[in-house]
Design a protein that fits this description.
By secondary structure, the protein is of the alpha+beta class. It has one domain: Translation Initiation Factor Eif1 (2-Layer Sandwich). The chain contains two helices and five strands, in the order E-E-H-E-E-H-E. It is elongated and about 65 Å long.
Length: about 110
């Protein structure tokens, strides 16, 4: 039986071909590099945040699930809130040194900018 769900075909108007099979494009999910090969950069950011400072971790290469897992671990160990998206992790407050120590203890290559 063909997997031809109508919700995936919403942008197809009409086909006269009786053998038409809708094929959707494959998503490229980036592979997560092992912690030893990650080059993470830690910096303090105050721009567009109404004077509040956040610790910004950039340079993560991998899928969103692994990014969120790393973000959750950092937020838990620092005891603060934050967010993660587009390969960046935001930790509320100035925790550059603590984040550096945590990342190095878990095997990541990180440096403070």
């Amino acid at each position: 039986m063909k997997k031809n769900d109508w919700k995936e075909r919403l942008n197809i108007v009409y086909s006269t071909n009786p053998d038409f099979s809708f094929e959707r494009e494959q998503e490229n999910i980036p592979e997560t590099l092992p912690p030893g090969k990650q080059q993470l950069r830690i910096q303090l950011d105050k721009r567009h945040r109404n004077g509040k400072s956040v610790t910004l971790i950039t340079g993560f290469q991998g899928n969103d699930d692994d990014l969120k897992e790393l973000s959750k671990m950092l937020k838990t160990k620092c005891g603060v809130g934050g967010s993660s998206k587009d390969g960046e992790i935001l930790i509320q407050g100035d925790f550059r040194q603590k984040v550096l120590e945590i990342l190095q203890n878990t095997g990541y290559k990180a440096r403070i900018i």
